[in-house]
TrEMBL record:
Gene3D superfamilies linked to this entry: 2.20.25.590, Complement Module, domain 1 (2.10.70.10)
Protein species of origin: Rhinolophus ferrumequinum (Greater horseshoe bat)
Pfam families per record: PSP94 (PF05825)
Signal peptide per UniProt: 1-21
Superkingdom as given in the UniProt entry: Eukaryota
Gene for this chain: MSMB
Record keywords, A-Z: Disulfide bond, Secreted, Signal
Protein's recorded name: Beta-microseminoprotein
PANTHER family: BETA-MICROSEMINOPROTEIN (PTHR10500:SF8)
Amino acid sequence: MMKAFLDSLTIFATFVTLCNTQCYFKPNTYFPNDVSNECKESNGVTHSLNSRWRTDNCETCFCSQEGIDCCNMVAKPVNYDTVKCEKILNKETCTYTVVEREDPEKTCDVSDWLV
């Protein structure tokens, strides 16, 4: 009975941690008589209105009439041995692994993840 309770508590804590999403908003800049149907990123790349995309930094973005909404989609490892271990981001899968610095074949324990 106690094990089931602890397992449930662990699952709940994981969901609470994963719901802490980091987002930001970049408003569109309009000029007089501008009827643009797109959003422009700071690097000059444009996206059509109501489109979604994934950035190279593992964020999901959405273009609206008001601007660009982006949210981080990667759970970042926290509370691990940062001296013995390092986190490595796989930008293709948008996931982190935490491995030993001296032996990258060995994974490290991570007690919390932050999105």
